[in-house]
Amino acid sequence: MPDTSSPCFATAPVMCNGVNVTAMMETIEAVKLTPAIAKFNFRATNKWMGGDCNRSTIQEFTGAMQEHRVGGRPFVYDNGEHPILLGQDKAPNPVEWLLHALIGCMTTTVAYHSAAQGIEVRGIESSIQGDLDLRGFLGLSETVRKGYSEIRVVMRVSTSAPKAAIEAITRMSPVFDVVSRSVPVKVDVQIC
To answer: What is the DSSP string of 93-127?
Structure first.
């Protein structure tokens, strides 16, 4: 009788779009059994470096009931401004980073959720742009938003799936949800 626990009998994980669907389904089942696994807390710190430059550091986060990246290499990102916005153009500005976060999250969401549904995606290329009127930021108009008035995304997805299926998947993106719906932001300013 063969030993079915032998590595020779191990089945390879199901992969789709470069995503380990077997592990994804195992994670979904684990979350169904223990909902606390689904709770995540992402964190960042930021320090002003002078002028238009400030630096964000992203390292630890909590998820699946434990801390991750503790003592690991942090991710460090600078924020800057273009000279037309009185900066030195050494890094993207925060509203440009927001576009990066949105399109990056939407792309990952399409790849992952498509994989979970067995939809093969051969490629994704996107463009994104947002309109911002400085009169809001500068306090020159009470009727003009301080942030983007509109963001437009064009995603070119190479797949045989129907357009409506991919459109529905894009709305599963956490960053899409944050940007397209109001999220409470609590600010605690401490003077030192």
So the answer is: -HHHHHHHHHHHHHHHHHHHHHHHTT--EEEEEEE
CB 130 within 8 A of CB 150: yes
Tokens standing for residue 116: 């979970």
The pTM (predicted TM-score) of the whole model is: 0.90
Question: Do 40 and 63 meet the contact criterion of CB atoms below 8 Å apart?
Answer: yes
Residue partners of 130: CB distance under 8 A and separation at least 6: 95, 98, 99, 148, 150, 151, 152
Q: Which one has a higher pLDDT value, 102 or 3?
A: 102
C-alpha–C-alpha distance, residues 164 and 168, integer Å: 6
Q: Would you place residue 182 in the very low, low, confident or very high pLDDT band (cuts 50, 70, 90)? A: confident
